[in-house]
Amino acid sequence: MTSEIPRKGLLMLLVALGLTKGGVVKASKDQLVNCTCENPHCKKPTCQGAWCTVVLVREQGGHPQVHRGCGNMNPELCLGRPTEFVHHHCCYRSFCNHNVSLVLEEPDVDPPLLLILGPVLALLVLVALGALGLWRVRRRQEKQRGLHSDLGESSLILKASEQGDSMLGDLLDSDCTTGSGSGLPFLVQRTVARQVALVECVGKGRYGEVWRGSWHGESVAVKIFSSRDEQSWFRETEIYNTVLLRHDNILGFIASDMTSRNSSTQLWLITHFHEHGSLYDFLQRQPLEPQLALRLAVSAACGLAHLHVEIFGTQGKPAIAHRDLKSRNVLVKSDLQCCIADLGLAVMHSQGSDYLDIGNNPRVGTKRYMAPEVLDEQIRTDCFESYKWTDVWAFGLVLWEIARRTIINGIVEDYKPPFYDMVPNDPSFDDMKKVVCTDQQTPTIPNRLAADPVLSGLAQMMRECWYPNPSARLTALRIKKTLQKLSHHPEKPKVTH
Ligand code: ADE
Predict the structure, then answer these.
(1) For residue 228, is it within any domain?
(2) Which of 248, 272, 296 is the last residue of a domain?
(3) Is 173 an active-site residue?
(4) Are residues 368 and 443 in the same domain?
(5) What is the number of structural domains in the chain?
(6) Residue 79 lies in a domain
(7) Distance between CA 68 and CA 47 in Å, rounded?
(8) What digits encode the pLDDT tens for the residues 217-233?
(9) pLDDT tens for residues 6-59?
């Protein structure tokens, strides 16, 4: 029997055919296979991995596209997630992904009735909630304009899709959020998460992996947490679901989901996807004209200032300190503004209740970006301001990374991480402590910044982020305002080709 899947749930479908589906002989851990590589991230026509993949992706309204590549990290993903809509398939012999003809087909599993009805019902609830939310928002807007419309729900949905609007955007903008946090109701989060198809892995590290996923044809980012970092998932989920955190310069949250598979737990965080990736990736790829450098810096500062500020009232938010700010945790959006990601270590504070919530994540920040008071363990961990001061130290280092990549009078330097010339790769706590505390070193500010009236302001700002006395450092709000002023300076930073 083939399953009856509603058309709406099949806006995108991933199917790989001709691949071994059961009883596969897996390559042993060290046995690598060569595979055909055909996807936007391929550097060469072949890649090496533990297995090969073929994924057929049909974006909304588009033609199906085949992505071929290699799989490496998490064999769980290969077996697919327990969803009725998405199946991820792999094969294990060299170039087994090369000559595979793919057709769009419903999964050939034979799910029990509940497995079919469950998602159908959940989907109907989701669509109804979304439509209701949309209808209420639009009706309110129309009322405000004194324009009553006779459009029913179905025509609103039709209208939205005719205009090519983002379904995710509508869902997140509608009234159907949890009320307190910046998230959708939990049931809707779960439903969305289980309709996401993993398309390609765009990053991996100690934290786990980040994938580009597809939800009804729209790209989303899926961060899959490694099991040893589950506290970061809990913390980030908690913050996004309790704090209203919608801001242009904070990574947009969509859903969090936990699933149990065999004996392991999969923890997902689904957010907006940004094609340019992290600021770290972006800086490797291209040098910056001064105006772009300032745009990146101002927007990142706006994100940090928003995190740090406490906003009172029903639409308010506690003050939040990030505690792991670095260029890898800043993303570059398609409009070339930055947004801040990874709230897994964040701490929150409300002045009114004088409540400091430091969570209970055993993880610590990235050593390279640690402020002197963290490295010499003099930080006052009971005082919220202390955490904001450490963020400002790290923000100064991010400004320095941007400044090195800025072209001034035709000169630019290679991308380097902060303290690259003073500590080894993957520095230890003691390596950093010696340089930052004992020797009181800070990164060398490029001389060429002094040649430009605007960028010399940026240089001065870095120095004021790196005062050894934490309370003497600039505040995020001051950084934001000064950078905004610099970017509106009458003598615009020179564009030099
Ligand atoms: N890398 C980490 N998070 C990402 C995101 N949201 N979009 C694109 N690349 C990312």
Answers:
(1) yes
(2) 272
(3) no
(4) yes
(5) 3
(6) yes
(7) 10
(8) 999 999 999 999 999 99
(9) 322 222 222 222 222 222 233 344 578 888 888 767 778 888 887 787 776 655
In a domain, 358, yes or no: yes
State the Cα–Cα distance between residues 78 and 55, nearest whole angstrom. Answer: 11
- The average confidence (pLDDT) of the chain is 81
Q: Whose CA is nearest to atom 9 of ligand 1?
A: 277
CATH of the domain at 18: 2.10.60.10
Q: Quick one: 308 and 343 in the same domain?
A: yes
Q: Of 449, 232, 452, 233, which is closest to residue 361 (Cα–Cα)?
A: 232
Q: Please identify, by atom number, the ligand 1 atom nearest to the C-alpha of residue 271.
A: 6
Question: Does residue 449 share a domain with residue 333?
Answer: yes
Provide the residue type at 258 as one letter.
Answer: M
**329 Cα–ligand 1 center, Å:** 9
Q: What pLDDT was estimated at residue 80?
A: 44
Please check the confidence at residue 334 and state whether its pLDDT lies above 80.
yes
What contacts 47, CB < 8 A, 6 or more positions away? 34, 35, 37, 69, 70
Pairwise pLDDT comparison (101 vs 305), residue with the higher score: 305
Task: Output b/e per residue, 35-69; b: 16+ Cβ within 10 A.
Answer: bbbbbeebeeebbebbbbbbbbbbbeeeeeeebbb
Candidates 170, 257, 324, 391; catalytic one: 324
Does residue 107 form part of some domain? Answer: no
Give the closest residue (by CA) to ligand 1 atom 5.
Answer: 273
Ligand 1: residues with CB < 6 A are: 202-203, 210, 221, 251, 271-274, 277-278, 331, 341
Q: Which two tokens stand for residue 445?
A: 């500010």
Domain shared by 258 and 343, yes or no: no
SS3 89: coil
CATH number at residue 259: 3.30.200.20
More confident residue, 115 or 340: 340
Task: State whether 267 and 286 are in the same domain.
Answer: no
Tokens of 148: 């009553």
- Express each pLDDT in 173-217 by its tens digit: 875 566 677 778 999 999 999 999 999 999 999 999 999 999 999
347-350 and 319-321 beta bridge pairing: antiparallel
Same-domain pairing of 355 and 248:
no
Pick the atom of ligand 1 nearest to 273's CA.
7
Residues 356 and 434 reside in one and the same domain: yes
The candidate with the shortest Cα–Cα distance to 210, out of 117, 278, 130, 261, is 278
End-of-domain residue from the set 61, 91, 121: 91
Whole domain around residue 65: which residue ranges? 7-91
In a shared domain, residues 447 and 462: yes
